[in-house]
Amino acid sequence: MIHFYPLYIDPGTGSAMFSILIGAAATIYFLGRALIIKLKVFFSGGKASNTVSADHSFVIYNEGKQYWNVFKPVLEEFENRKVALLYFTSAKDDPVFDTSWSFIKPEYIGEGNRAFARLNMLRAKICLMTTPGLDVYQLKRSKMVRHYAHVLHEVGDAMYRLFGIDYFDSILLTGDYQAEDIRTLERKRGLPEKILLTVGCSYLDVYAEKIKNLPPEENHSFTVLVSPSWGASALLTRYGEKLLDPLSESGWRVIIRPHPQSKKSETAMLERLQTRYKNLNNIEWDFERENIISLSKADIMISDFSGIIFDYMFLRDKPVLYVNHDFDLRPYDADDIDHELWKFKTVKETGIELREEDFPRITEIIKNAGDSESLKNARKKARETAWQYPGEAGKRVFDFMMKIVNG
Fold first, then answer.
1. Domain containing 56: what range?
2. Which of 387, 395, 390 is nearest to 212 (CA)?
3. Which of 30, 110, 363, 403 fits as disulfide partner to 250, beta carbons 3.0 to 4.6 Å?
4. In contact, 172 and 150? CB cutoff 8 Å
5. β-pair partners for 322
6. Number of domains the chain contains
7. In angstroms, rounded to a whole number, what is the distance separating the alpha carbons of residues 272 and 252?
8. Global pTM value
């Protein structure tokens, strides 16, 4: 008797097979389009054009709702200038669907491989995104897109996981300082030079306006914001109860805002901590998409190497306690850089170090965490370095995209 067993394909193999199928489909699609064009040229007696034929001039792809404020000022600029733009999003509840714009055409294209399948066959003159890893994993360069632009979504170093921005045509920076390390990677890896242009930080422009318009909190009590990054080296994963127990006993309001990725990758850790402090009235958890409310309430922040440190410093101009770390750079582009990252160097200059042995006396440390003139000056310098052209990012990104398409 012949026995038939169910076929099992592990997720990694399945993903690889899906990528192969998508690549094959894209190849067949482009070969078919090329053949049609050649036949049209042949029968018309004309000559093929060297320019990229595009169904859309301007395309933006937003991989998640958390990046809405990165693109909002850019979309507003296109709408105000009456220039049509196709906006792809992987967020069903993207705020763009609540707008009534005339020149922005929004479209939900799904998540993950479904979205990549659509993007891999895109026809456009320029495509702007925050998503790294172009031409590294499932997200491939479409042969019918003339220019791929990557806009940074934080004011820290332009360093991602390996090869994250290697294959873009341009990188839009928040500060001039970010260009040096990108050029270093290009030389080391034998890559052609990309267009590097400093445009400012669009989401900080949005937050700066919002925070000015927030009403003052009634009956405000002293508030400590704990807002770390995620992963094995991050604050909550590494220390958890060791830090939060003495903070919970301080009597102060403590807002814990985990990194959004923690909800996906560190669920067990978060559930353990939430259960531990569920009966304490002074412990609050913030899982909102925007960090602006927690930032506005906080009198002091405790963090690690998270980029939110600079959001807090630049928007609130208040002191930060940082926990030092042994960050493993090997999976990141930064491992190929032979100097300390700007982010790590600047946190040391602008913040107050908090050591693990200091946790039991955290109340005393926070009470004595004076905001010296040197710390204020260091924050000012960091802001001027990393957040250039405040309030102008949307306009500058628009102008750049117009230049690429029309230049």
1. 51-201+390-406
2. 390
3. 363
4. yes
5. 303, 353
6. 2
7. 22
8. 0.83
